[in-house]
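Supplementary Note 3. Input sequence used for the single-chain structure prediction.
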Amino acid sequence: MSAWYLFFATVILVTVMVGLLRVFLGPTRADRMLAAQLCGTASVAIFLLLAQALKKAFLYDVALVFAILAAVSTIAFVRLTWQRSLSNEEKIHVS
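The predicted structure, written as discrete structure tokens, is reproduced below.
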């Protein structure tokens, strides 16, 4: 059964590699952030699958840390993007 977990972890790892291409080549910041979210979500899934396959409980904690980091990075991105878009709109209305 653990071979299946390792197989699916490898499949998810391949999708992360494809997602990294979008992080580096994405045309907009939003595309890059969504690809980064894919990497964060996939890393959580990979660590959960590895924890189950290898019977290592500490990998559940690592997966939890990655989930929290993914959520915090999304909030930070939205806040930075929201502030920049507001400042650009204010410049347009002031001119």
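The helical segments are 2-25, 29-54, 58-94. The mean pLDDT is 86.
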